[in-house]
């Protein structure tokens, strides 16, 4: 597969790197090759000279070189050994290259308040966000490229909420920075992407045991079209009278649907459900 012409802003070395690799569909490899878009991702990360950055899936190193020029230290984790070899050719002094799967990488080896910059393979987005946000050592902030539709779901407001939106917003403040069209990648994916900025909350949105909280949330979303009184009764295998009592205590209408609730509503529902030993 021949790469498209590169912007004149790319240097010759990077152009040669791109011309000599073969993207692997199995790893979701779509390399961002548009200079202004790369700058958008980096700007969203608000990198300081004292920052340690974790880059996930650095690929050819287009983002990597920009990050290394700004940060104190950069650790990049790359699953493709062919790309690891390319990245290892005259790397910057502040770059550590790890060959392996990010899903088994030990985040505890990074300093507290590290930041993440990444062009995430679409298939890995939900699992990776959960791994990072629920880690004992979560990043302070993230600037990540994800599928546009996924970014829109993550930043959704009550009325359009989902389990994904709640699982991110419970831990972090989410903002969609901008859209990057598919033709700015090589090879071009079938959908557009978006830059998503996530900043970790000082504390979780409210006190809860996450496993129990998300058992409750998943029950509410178990059948999206169902009213909460029915969805929760089925999802928690509870008597309808108990569910009605929980909803009444939480001051949530039994006829509402899960996607209509805000985090504050789930807080009250969690407290009420816990009091009734439902989760």
SSE inventory with pairings:
Blueprint: H1 12-19, E1 31-32, H2 35-44, E2 52-56, H3 62-68, E3 73-78, H4 81-87, E4 95-99, E5 115-119, H5 125-133, E6 141-147, H6 148-154, H7 163-169, E7 172-180, E8 185-186, E9 193-200, H8 210-220, H9 228-235, H10 240-250, H11 263-275
Parallel strand pairs: 2-3, 2-5, 3-4, 5-6
Antiparallel strand pairs: 1-8, 6-9, 7-9
Helix pairs in contact: 2-3, 8-9, 8-11, 9-10, 10-11
Compact description:
The chain has 279 residues and is of the alpha/beta class. The protein has helices at 12-19, 35-44, 62-68, 81-87, 125-133, 148-154, 163-169, 210-220, 228-235, 240-250, 263-275; strands spanning 31-32, 52-56, 73-78, 95-99, 115-119, 141-147, 172-180, 185-186, 193-200.
How would you characterize this protein structure?
- The protein has 279 residues and is of the alpha/beta class.
- It has 11 helices and 9 strands.
- The protein has helices at 12-19, 35-44, 62-68, 81-87, 125-133, 148-154, 163-169, 210-220, 228-235, 240-250, 263-275; strands at 31-32, 52-56, 73-78, 95-99, 115-119, 141-147, 172-180, 185-186, 193-200.
- Strands 4-3-2-5-6-9-7 form a 7-stranded mixed sheet.
- Helix 8 (210-220) packs across helix 9 (228-235), helix 8 packs across helix 11 and helix 10 (240-250) crosses helix 11 (263-275).
């Amino acid at each position: 597969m021949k790469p498209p012409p590169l912007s004149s802003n790319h240097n010759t070395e990077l152009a040669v790197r791109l011309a000599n690799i073969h993207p692997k569909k199995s790893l979701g490899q779509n390399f961002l090759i548009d200079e202004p878009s790369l700058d958008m991702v980096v700007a969203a990360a608000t990198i300081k000279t004292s920052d340690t950055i974790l880059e996930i899936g650095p690929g050819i190193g287009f983002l990597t070189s920009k990050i290394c020029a700004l940060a104190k230290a950069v650790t990049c984790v790359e699953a493709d050994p062919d790309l690891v070899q390319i990245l290892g050719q005259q790397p910057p002094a502040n770059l550590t290259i790890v060959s392996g799967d990010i899903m088994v990488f030990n985040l505890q080896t990074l300093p507290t308040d590290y930041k993440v910059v990444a062009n995430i393979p679409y298939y890995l987005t939900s699992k990776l966000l959960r791994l990072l946000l629920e880690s004992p050592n979560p990043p302070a902030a993230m600037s990540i490229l994800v599928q546009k539709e996924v970014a829109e779901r993550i930043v959704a407001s009550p009325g359009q909420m989902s389990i994904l939106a709640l699982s991110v917003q419970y831990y972090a403040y989410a903002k969609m920075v901008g859209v990057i069209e598919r033709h700015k990648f090589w090879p071009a994916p079938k959908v557009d992407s978006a830059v998503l900025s996530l900043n970790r909350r000082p504390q979780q949105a409210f006190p809860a045991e996450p496993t129990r909280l998300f058992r409750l949330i998943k029950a509410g979303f178990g059948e999206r079209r169902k009213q909460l009184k029915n969805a929760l009764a089925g999802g928690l295998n509870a008597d309808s009278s108990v569910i009605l009592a929980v909803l009444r205590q939480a001051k949530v209408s039994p006829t509402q649907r899960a996607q209509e609730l805000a985090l504050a509503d789930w807080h009250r529902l969690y407290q009420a459900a816990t009091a009734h030993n439902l989760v």
